[in-house]
C-alpha cells in the first residue's frame, strides 16, 4: 500500500519538521508493508494542485493530511486537489484541528475519514481495515470518524497511547532535514530568538494535566512520558546523526512534574550532551524551583518561555489556569538573574475581560524581568470550554483561526479596535526600556546580533515581529 503523508502550506513565520507525520510513518513501517512518502509543503511550498500531482505520480492509495487550525483552509483545498488528480485515493484528515473538531472536514466531499487524537495506532488500524476491504468494523477503531451510507457523520471517541516508548523514533530519513536549515523564508523554531538555524524539535511527553478553558486539549489531560533513555536517545540522534546544534523541547508542559523534568535535564548533563536547548512551548512560571533552574543551566538550556496568559487574578481563576502571579514574577526574576533568555506568552480578550484587566496583563509583562513577550488574541477553538461558553452566550463564532494577532470573536468588554491598539502599545511599552534592551542584547548569541537588532526595532516601531503572519499553536 502506498501512503502519502502531507502537511499543507500556510503563511506561518516558523516551521520545524512535522514530528506527528514522522512518528506515524515510523509506526507504519514497523507494523506493515507500506511505501511511504512525505510532503511538507510548509517547508517546500507546494500548492494544493502540486500536491495533487505528487499523489498522482506516486500512485498513492491513501493520502493522510495533517491540519492545524491555522492551515485548515489549505488542508481542505489540498484534499480537493488530491481528489481531482488522484480520484481513487482514500483521503484521511488528522492533526490538531481534527482533534479539536473531529467532523469538521467531513463536510468536504473529498474527505473520506478523519482521525482525532494521536494518529499512529488509529491510522495503522484504519489502513489495515481498508486493506482487507472492511467497513463494518470502523466503529471499533477509537478516534476514527466517517460518513455513513445515509450521509450521517459518526465515529468513536479517541483513546490515548499509554506507552509512548512503543512508538518508534521519528522516520527522519523520509525528509530532507538539511532543507529546513537552508530555508530562508521561515525560521526552524517556534522561538523567534533562536541561536542557530540547525535547530530540531524533540518531545519528552504528551499531554497536560491542567484544564485551561481556551485549550483544545490535543494530547489529553493525563500526561504520558517517554522514558529518560528514549529522550536521551532521540536527542543524541538529532545532535550526532542529523547535525543539530540546537534542540527545542516542544512538550505541552515540560515542567508538569518538576522532579521528572529536573531528572531529564540531569541525565542530559550526565550523558555529556552539549547541544543548546530551548524550552519554548510555555512553562508554568509558578512551578519552578532553584534546583530546576540549576539543572537547566548545567544541561545547556539558554532560553525559557513562561505561559502567563493574564496578569489578572480574576481572569486566571475564570480560565482555570490559576497561575500564582506573585510567585511567577519571583521565578522569572530568578531565571533572568541566572542569564537565561526569558520570554512570556500573554493573551488579550478573555470572556468579560475589562480594559483594566488587559492593562494588568501588560503591566505584569512590563514590570517583569522578561527579555521578550508576546501578546496574542484569545481564539475560541471548537470543543473547548471557552467555545461552549461563547455559544451559550449567543456569540457568533467566526471559525477563523489563521491569524492569532487579530480579533476573530470578541468575548471581552473592550471594543476590538481598542484591543488591537492595546496590543500594539503593549509591545512598545515592553520593549522601550533601556534596561531590557541591554539585557536583550547581552543574553543573545553574538552571531545573531543584527537579526536581533532588526527584531527589536520591528517590535518597537510596529508592535509585532510577525505582524500579519499566521501562527502555529
From the structure above, extract its key features:
473 residues, alpha/beta, pyruvate-formate lyase- activating enzyme, 2 domains, seven-stranded mixed beta sheet, 17 helices
Task: Provide a descriptive summary of the structure in words.
With 473 residues, the chain is an alpha/beta fold. It folds into 2 domains: 2-155, 3-Layer(aba) Sandwich (Rossmann fold); 187-462, tm_1862 like domain (pyruvate-formate lyase- activating enzyme), CATH 3.80.30. Helix content is 39%, strand content 16%. The protein has helices at residues 19-31, 41-44, 48-58, 72-85, 96-100, 119-131, 177-182, 228-241, 258-271, 290-299, 313-318, 325-337, 355-367, 385-392, 416-431, 434-442, 449-462, and strands spanning 2-7, 35-40, 62-66, 90-94, 113-115, 144-147, 153-155, 199-202, 205-206, 224-225, 246-249, 277-283, 301-309, 341-348, 372-377. A 7-stranded mixed beta sheet has the order 2-1-3-4-5-6-7, sandwiched between helices. It has a 6-stranded parallel beta sheet with strand order 8-11-12-13-14-15. It has a two-stranded antiparallel ribbon with strand order 9-10. Helix 9 (258-271) packs parallel to helix 10 (290-299). The longest helix is centred in the last third of the chain and has 16 residues, at 416-431. The protein is globular and about 65 Å long. It starts with a strand and ends in an 11-residue tail after the last helix. Mean pLDDT is 91; it is low at 467-473.
Amino acid at each position: 500500500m502506498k501512503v502519502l503523508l502531507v502537511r499543507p502550506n500556510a503563511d506561518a513565520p516558523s516551521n520545524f519538521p512535522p514530528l506527528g507525520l514522522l512518528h506515524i510513518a515510523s509506526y507504519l513501517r514497523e507494523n506493515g508493508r507500506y511505501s511511504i512518502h512525505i510532503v511538507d509543503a510548509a517547508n517546500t511550498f507546494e500548492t494544493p494542485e502540486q500536491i495533487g500531482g505528487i499523489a498522482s505520480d506516486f500512485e498513492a492509495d491513501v493520502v493522510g493530511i495533517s491540519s492545524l487550525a491555522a492551515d485548515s483552509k489549505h488542508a481542505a483545498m489540498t484534499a480537493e486537489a488530491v481528489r481531482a488528480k488522484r480520484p481513487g485515493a482514500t483521503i484521511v484528515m488528522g492533526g490538531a484541528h481534527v482533534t479539536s473538531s473531529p467532523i469538521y472536514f467531513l463536510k468536504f466531499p473529498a474527505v473520506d475519514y478523519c482521525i482525532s487524537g494521536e494518529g499512529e495506532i488509529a491510522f495503522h488500524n484504519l489502513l489495515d481495515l481498508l486493506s482487507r476491504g472492511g467497513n463494518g468494523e470502523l466503529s471499533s477503531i477509537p478516534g476514527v470518524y466517517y460518513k455513513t451510507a445515509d450521509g450521517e457523520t459518526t465515529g468513536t471517541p479517541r483513546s490515548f497511547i499509554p506507552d509512548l516508548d512503543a512508538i518508534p523514533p521519528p522516520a527522519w530519513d523520509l525528509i530532507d532535514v538539511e532543507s529546513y536549515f537552508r530555508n530562508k523564508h521561515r525560521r526552524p523554531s517556534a522561538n523567534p530568538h533562536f541561536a542557530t538555524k540547525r535547530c530540531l524539535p524533540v518531545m519528552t511527553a504528551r499531554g497536560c494535566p491542567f484544564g485551561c478553558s481556551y485549550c483544545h486539549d490535543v494530547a489529553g489531560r493525563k500526561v504520558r512520558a517517554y522514558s529518560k533513555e528514549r529522550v536521551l536517545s532521540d536527542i543524541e540522534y538529532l545532535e550526532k546523526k542529523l547535525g543539530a546544534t540546537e534542540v527545542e523541547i516542544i512538550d505541552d508542559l515540560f515542567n508538569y512534574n518538576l522532579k521528572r523534568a529536573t531528572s531529564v535535564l540531569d541525565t542530559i548533563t550526565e550523558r555529556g550532551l552539549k547541544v543548546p536547548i530551548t524550552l519554548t512551548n510555555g512553562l508554568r512560571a509558578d512551578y519552578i524551583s532553584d534546583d530546576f533552574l540549576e539543572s537547566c543551566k548545567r544541561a545547556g538550556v539558554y532560553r525559557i518561555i513562561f505561559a502567563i496568559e493574564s496578569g489578572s487574578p480574576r481572569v486566571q481563576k475564570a480560565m482555570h489556569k490559576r497561575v500564582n502571579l506573585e510567585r511567577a514574577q519571583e521565578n522569572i526574576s530568578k531565571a533572568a538573574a541566572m542569564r537565561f533568555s526569558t520570554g512570556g506568552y500573554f493573551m488579550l480578550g478573555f470572556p468579560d475581560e475589562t480594559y483594566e484587566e488587559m492593562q494588568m496583563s501588560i503591566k505584569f509583562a512590563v514590570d517583569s524581568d522578561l527579555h521578550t513577550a508576546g501578546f496574542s488574541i484569545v481564539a475560541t477553538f471548537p470543543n473547548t470550554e471557552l467555545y461552549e461558553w461563547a455559544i451559550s452566550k449567543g456569540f457568533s463564532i467566526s471559525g477563523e483561526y489563521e491569524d492569532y494577532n487579530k480579533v476573530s470573536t470578541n468575548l471581552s468588554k473592550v471594543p476590538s479596535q481598542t484591543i488591537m491598539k492595546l496590543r500594539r502599545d503593549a509591545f512598545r511599552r515592553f520593549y522601550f526600556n533601556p534596561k531590557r534592551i541591554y539585557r536583550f542584547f547581552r543574553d543573545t548569541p553574538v552571531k545573531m546580533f543584527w537579526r536581533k537588532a532588526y527584531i527589536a526595532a520591528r517590535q518597537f516601531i510596529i508592535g509585532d515581529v510577525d505582524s500579519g503572519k499566521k501562527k502555529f499553536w
